[in-house]
Amino acid sequence: MQLTLHSDYALRVLLYLACHPGSGISTREISQAYGISQHHLVRVIQRLNEVGYVTIASGRYGGAKLARDPEQIGLGDVVRATELNLALVECFDQKTNTCVISPVCGLKGVLQSALQEFLSVLDRYTLADLVTGNGMQRIARVFARKATKTPQ
Predict the structure, then answer these.
(1) How far is C-alpha 95 from the chain's CA centre?
(2) CATH number for the domain harbouring residue 13
(3) What pLDDT, on the 0 to 100 scale, is given for residue 37?
(4) Model-level pTM?
């Protein structure tokens, strides 16, 4: 299973914001920090705002910041909110399923169980788990090293 870039970027945005609490952070800053498309990040941040993980303010002192404490942001919930389709195989969707062995196949149940286990593991962690202890400092050091190497 592979998460979409949308979910990947959403998790990265949340990590960045958790490591930079307080003032709003521009999409451009996050884009430069990760070296990823600013255009794509705008959509990701809009989605995170829609589902209540991020607040967005426009203007000179605007930007994005966490709308909740990191302890209140479950990783499983973020993935569920940002993955448009968690159907691992065609037979998960009865409307579009054309697999002829679906009525007798045991694979669907196994894959559904695997997906639930995957999400269950993510449900055990919050954003805070990734940035507590020395996690925040380690991540911040990576961004600081990148900023000194990147010409502005």
Answers:
(1) 28
(2) 1.10.10.10
(3) 92
(4) 0.86
Residue with tokens 């945005």: 13
Nearest to 27 by CA among 46, 7, 41, 14: 41
Question: How many domains are there within the chain?
Answer: 1
Low-confidence stretches of the chain (pLDDT beneath 70): 145-152
Domain that includes residue 28, residue range = 5-149
Q: What is the dihedral of CA 28, 33, 34, 39, to 10 degrees?
A: 0
Residue 94 neighbours by CB under 8 Å, 6+ apart: none
Q: What is the DSSP code (8-state) at residue 74?
A: B
Contact in structure between 54 and 66 (CB atoms under 8 Å): yes
Question: Across-strand partners of 126?
Answer: 74
Output the six-digit token pair for 44. Answer: 């990701």
Amino acid in position 14: L
| Eight-state DSSP code of residue 89 | S
